Amino acid sequence: MSKIVLYMSPGSCARVSCIALEELGLEFETRVIRFMTGEHKSPEFKQKNPKGKVPALVYNNQTLSENVAIITFLNQIHGQLLPSTNDPMVSANQIADLCFCSATLHPLVTRIRMPAFFAGEDNAKAVQDKAFDAMDEFFALIDKRLEGQQWWYKDQWSAMDAYLYWCFWRVQGAGYHVEKFPHYCAHAQRLEQRPAVQRAIARDNEASSQLESEGLLFKPKNIAR
Questions:
Q1: pLDDT tens string 151-162
Q2: Domain residue extents for the chain
Q3: What is the number of helices (H) and of strands (E) in the chain?
Q4: Which superfamily does 4-81+196-213 belong to?
């Protein structure tokens, strides 16, 4: 087994941790979890992550879950993922920024991308419409912050940018009008030019092709509007 293994599923937020690992230039293996077969609930995977979710990072035979924790840990060990600081308040605010993605944006992303999962097919559009309305406030906040600067932390790329990119990309093809937020759109385009991001996307695409060949690729339904 590789020293570092990232358990992931294509399209999932595991892409955030994958981008972080690629940016650090670490050697790691990605292993695909097949949600369509219930592999995430299997005893074998739950030994790695009892929550039954991805990402799960195995690092020196120890497992860590949750993007915020994975990014914080990797930054403590390797640096480069968040702006360097000795100020506890600045450090806490960096964690708060990551939590903004995981605890505020991510639940709305899921309701936009997979509303039927929460309310069934009959109520899916109502759930998605509510999520669209709620997301507008936060995308406007992000768009304003990115106006006139390249990254979330001005000129310094960080893992926060990777998380923001995943949130943007995930709703982009689900009927949400991302074009209302031009600075956020430009940010996503800049991210996609980074070699590390391109390598992470290639891993994601390879996993998608693998699952599709097995008839196990999950494809959320687009809601007619």
A1: 999 999 999 999
A2: 4-81+196-213, 88-194
A3: 9, 4
A4: Glutaredoxin (3.40.30.10)
